[in-house]
Amino acid sequence: MRKPILEALLKARAEKAATALVSHLESGAQTLIAGDRRIGDLPLTPALEAAISQVQRADRSRRVDSEAGPVFIQVFNPPLRLIIVGAVHIAQPLAPMAALAGYDVTVIDPRRAFASDERFPSVSVRQDWPDDGLKALAPDARTAIVALTHDPKLDDPALDVALRGDSFYIAALGSRKTHAARLERLASLGHGAETLARIHGPAGLAIGAVSPAEIAVSVMAEMTAALRQASPARIAAA
Question: What is the mean predicted confidence (pLDDT) over 209-213?
Fold first, then answer.
């Protein structure tokens, strides 16, 4: 590995940017992809770029046959993150489920009676206002955000911040009527229809979930589908 590529790789990993190193198995040519940066001497065709996005989304390094011959795509993805807005009863099963699936989980809720270490052991808990907490955490394309409070004073500011970023999954609980009213409020903040369509609402797959644990399962399933099956460009972005 040439020094400029190594230095760029170390920098990208320090920045927790989604990164891929593409190596031609016959010539030894390499190109590093870190966000919008391309460093190296291996040309990347549109088909190879698409393959790289798929490998990054799958979180699995592998060999790929390209037009120029066999290449190996090595993935260096930062940890997945889940930010839960609202330390409510559904958040209690959702947080450990997400941690089991490999997410770094943070719960944000300014209400001290809800946001306690006792209710959320082994999970990072912040007692910030959701918009302040999200800005401090700087969500990226490896981050999912789920709003659970049903309270517009908490959910709306969080969703407003989330929609201005690259999070791969944004969701909020509530009925269809509640969600329609929510979209109207967010539209008044300047969000267009295409942006608002990023919100999964009501959150979770329609599996007939009733209990908090079942609803958490439905949210995890929908979040996993968004991660593994969504637009490669969105997921691969740093």
Answer: 95
Distance CA 226, CA 172 (A): 14
Q: How many domains does the chain have?
A: 2
Domain boundary among 49, 76, 103: 76
Highest mean pLDDT among 56-60, 141-145, 234-238: 141-145
- Per the CB < 8 A criterion, the answer to whether 231 and 224 are in contact is no
| Segment 8-30 mean pLDDT | 88
**CATH number of the domain that 196 lies in?**
3.40.50.720
Closest to 50 in 3D by CA, of 234, 233, 225:
233
Structural domain harbouring 44? 3-76
Q: Note whether 28 and 71 are same-domain residues.
A: yes
- Shared domain for 103 and 70, answered yes or no, is no
Those residues whose C-beta lies under 8 Å from the C-beta of residue 6, and which sit 6 or more positions away, are none
SS (H, E, C) 101-158: CCEEEEEECCCCCCCCCCCCCCCEEECCCHHHHHHHHCCCCCEEEEECCCCHHHHHHH
Q: Which residue has the tokens 């006792």?
A: 118
* 25, two tokens: 């198995």
